[in-house]
Amino acid sequence: MTSLGIAPALNGDMDGETVIGVTDTLTVRASQIRSEAIMWQPLLRSAVIKEHDYQVIAVYDTMTREQQMERLKVDGLNIVKTLINLTISICNEKILQHVLVLVNDVLTNKENIKLFEEIEEANTPEKAGNADAPKGLSSWEPFLDLLNRPDEFIVNQSCLILAKVISCGTFRLDSKNLNWFINWQVSQLLQNNTYLHTILASQQLMLRVPEYRAPFYNSTCLDKMLNILSTRISFQLQYQMVFCFWLLSFRTTYCFKLLDFIKPTAEILRQAAKEKVIRIILQFYRNLLTNHSAPRKAAELMIQGKVQVVMGQLIEKNWKDEDIKEDVEHVKGVLDEMLQDMSTFDSYLAEVKSGKLEWSPLHTNPAFWRENAQKLNQNDHEVLRMIRILLKDEQDPTTLAVCAHDVGEYVRHYPVGKYNIEKLGLKERVVCLLDNDDPKVKSAALLALQKLMLNNWEFMAKTNA
Fold first, then answer.
1. Angle between helices 262-271 and 221-229 (to 10 degrees)
2. pTM of the model
3. Contact criterion met (CB below 8 Å) for 26 and 153
4. pLDDT tens digits for 316-365?
5. CA–CA dist 285, 331 (Å, integer)
6. Buried b (16+ CB within 10 A) or exposed e, 59-79
């Protein structure tokens, strides 16, 4: 299990399946582009590219990928410089696509990030020592500039390359360009974006870098992700998004905003069939329950989402991955302990006094009502009187529905209490809810009235027996 303070490095190469799937739009299109032959000599004759770059690319482009990887070990810096020069000088979209595929192929081996760092290191002293000196070759700027191009493949391949260059080595992008890049990524977070896998892959890479997390968190990125996550998307997109949440959850101050993602991820967890999706959600939850300064709130939201029920199902499975088993046991243990702690009358009283009720275990746990129903009579029916006020005033639909539910549970577990309900005017308030516009409020009111009637019949039957 990874230590809870440090985000782990991704396994495999820098654009392997851990980051982006083998059937995503970018990968499929790149495979097609890679197989297309490019005539480099006409570019040399028309002075689009320089003689040196032609000599390098004319040989390199005829090699197999395996041969290219071997060649990079011998002449890597020269090859990478040529590829960046071509990226800058070529305008033809088809040829530029081909060059970008070659650049990304270089970066499939994480060791090759050093070649880009060498270019940047050579450029930095020149700029720092003499402000008037000609600007040297940049390892990242050409790819940032390409994000303004109209071609979707060029834009998204450049996005992934740039994310690798600024994240997978030691070089870090300055704050101005970083914020621009992140805002550009956020603008691409659309459900109908066929390159959404690529955008999320670039964010997965960048969020591994602690100093990049604040700009992401402070942008509208999480809001956009929440909208997408609430729709029907592939399990791969689900995995990539939750991976981003998980990386952010290592920072305690970010966990408050991440609480909004408990509900949709709980729904995904109930339906998830893919082990990697289950694993990343569990690790996200574990961080919220461990790193969050208010783990109680996180636990409450998980219990409301029936996560503890899913944990009971998952713990019965035989997992090949020991980390999943450990995470299931940990999350279940915390939720079970929190559930027991939350099911107290003091907590219930505090919530009613707050004037805003939610569907927490305090309301839905039958054990709570068996033990505490009669306590609603204490202090001259203090709690019942407060519930009557909540039913009387203008309230949000959830509070109204929970109040109606509680009236029903009170009489179900304390049948004699139906007289208190009628005497205090709560029954009348519940009846009024049948005209409420919200269907959930209507349903809760109807169910509460059914419980009132049922207890009345049961009481009459016992009296006449």
1. 30
2. 0.75
3. yes
4. 888 888 889 999 999 999 988 887 776 578 778 878 887 888 888 789 88
5. 7
6. ebeeeeeeebbebbeeebebb
